[in-house]
Please model this.
Amino acid sequence: SPAGAMLQPPPVARYNLNNVTTTARPLENRENILLLTPMARFNPAYWDNLLRLSYPHELITLGFILPRTREGNLATRELQKRIAHVQTQAPERDRFKSVVVLREDLDPALSPLASQDERERHQLARQKARRAAMAKARNALLVSTLGPSTSWVLWLDADVVETPPALIQDLARHDKPIVVPNCFQRFYNARTQAMDERPYDFNNWIDSDAARELASAMGPDDVLFEGYAEMATYRTLMAYLAKDDDNDDDEGERDLHEEVLLDGVGGAALLVKADVHRDGAMFPAFPFYHLLETEGFAKMAKRLGWEAVGLPNYKVYHYNE
Amino acid sequence: SPAGAMLQPPPVARYNLNNVTTTARPLENRENILLLTPMARFNPAYWDNLLRLSYPHELITLGFILPRTREGNLATRELQKRIAHVQTQAPERDRFKSVVVLREDLDPALSPLASQDERERHQLARQKARRAAMAKARNALLVSTLGPSTSWVLWLDADVVETPPALIQDLARHDKPIVVPNCFQRFYNARTQAMDERPYDFNNWIDSDAARELASAMGPDDVLFEGYAEMATYRTLMAYLAKDDDNDDDEGERDLHEEVLLDGVGGAALLVKADVHRDGAMFPAFPFYHLLETEGFAKMAKRLGWEAVGLPNYKVYHYNE
Ligand SMILES: Nc1nc2c(ncn2[C@@H]2O[C@H](COP(=O)(O)OP(=O)(O)O)[C@@H](O)[C@H]2O)c(=O)[nH]1
Ligand SMILES: Nc1nc2c(ncn2[C@@H]2O[C@H](COP(=O)(O)OP(=O)(O)O)[C@@H](O)[C@H]2O)c(=O)[nH]1
Ligand SMILES: [Mn+2]
Ligand SMILES: [Mn+2]
Model:
């Protein structure tokens, strides 16, 4: 493709990985962010939130991967329209450093992710194939876009519709290999007749003896999923560690930046030092210590000596379908 | 760096991974090769052999990673000189599509690979740290250079000094996810008073019951290395499967393209379909099924459903130090 030809680097480029910093002050050090999103559907609220991120857009490369389904075609068209607009019509300061859009090479007919409704998607029996396919999509996106000058990778799902604008700076300031905010969901509470919020992402957890025992009794290809009654793990879920903020008075007291060490992470929003991926930590599409995808990634990173921390009180919000 | 700035892709690029073919006829289909070399020392014979590869250079991107040791500095200077020459002075058809040179970000003082002589390097006790560091160097090189239009990755060590010029076409024609030639070494045979050759790379093997039993008795962080008397694996080594070619008469009869299925592979020369890496198969720097680096890579690829084949009679040659 002509775009492909243009993307080629010049004949010779030299990089000293030692000069690529990854610090608590990425903005001051002009560190490059690679913001990666696997996208099945296009959600305008995701896009608007993305545009509001206050980290300098000129330091952000966007990477997307979309499935080759009918839904994926539709999302690709919507996405391309928005990209073309921001990169050519929007004020200079809104434009991103570069944007890469990938389409999966799966046969849509074979894709375990194709045409499943929300209910079906969450059934235990389907989770394994679904999470494996998601892992492959994330890996393909990662290895195709990470470059020698990337400092941080921010994973942001296409259905995360609300984050603080300083998300990147706020997470990076923890200076941790992997940092995860708490993913909640807003909903209309019929009881209180008011908008409310509830925990959404249960993949951020601290391991338990019960889960370790379940795992040790499993066959090598079995997977331990979180959030299924038939498989009680008694893990500590970060989703439930958020301090209640019903009462506006203690707002100032809650520590937004409180950290907890995590053994499993979700991918809704996830900041990773690029060196973690460079060392070879990726999203296993095969059972890795009985874990798949983002949960397996946390375990693999740990095997490589990198820890993950979660921020129970720092919230981002998932779309409510 | 200015080179870094120039390397940026244009604002928007779109790729359909489905259109990137990886076939038995890469040349006819104009498939892009990413040729990756971790390099501790510069060997002119490696470079001369590289230049003789008959696959169109305009379809080959070269990627190097060098350690931040004194030796690595020296090798980087030698390499840069050769690169500058071929990319600007050599005839058009000798020039490569692009070249990326990376320097590791390890503290050389901490590097387990620093200043070890050949003897020491091969001792069992040091192998673990050494292979883990090599794995990280390979992963950093891979994720920093693989792009959306890469079809194949050829791993070629910097001390592989002789291969058939059609190496890429010859290996690709097997149309296998991973293909490994047999790595030999030329030497002067004092007995026959003539040049001779002997097996060199023992990381290409077929698993054995004995090795599986050794592994199952090991602790989770223990590693099973090949080629050490104190750890007899009884694996079948591809190095010893090459048909004797002392007798020139049977030359025509030997099947250069005979295949054997492998469970472990070495990295001296290794052709990999880019999709294998895109799915997340990398070089584990932690014990993975008691295997590290290239041997662990073969196992990880297998877990992802990709097989490795070796070509016992198709030879490449390692430098004789
Ligand atoms: N490339 C790609 N992305 C997908 C696919 N299925 C879902 N996604 C995206 O991957 C992310 C996570 O998927 P989602 O279904 O929201 O997972 P959940 O929120 O954990 O139930 C979202 O950004 C989706 O848009 C797929 O088949 N291919
Ligand atoms: N980047 C990098 N490459 C290395 C380092 N040590 C060795 N290499 C290269 O990695 C490859 C394999 O290493 P080598 O010592 O030859 O392994 P052996 O042939 O299996 O004993 C060769 O191309 C070396 O030049 C290192 O510390 N950093
Ligand atoms: Mn979601
Ligand atoms: Mn060698």
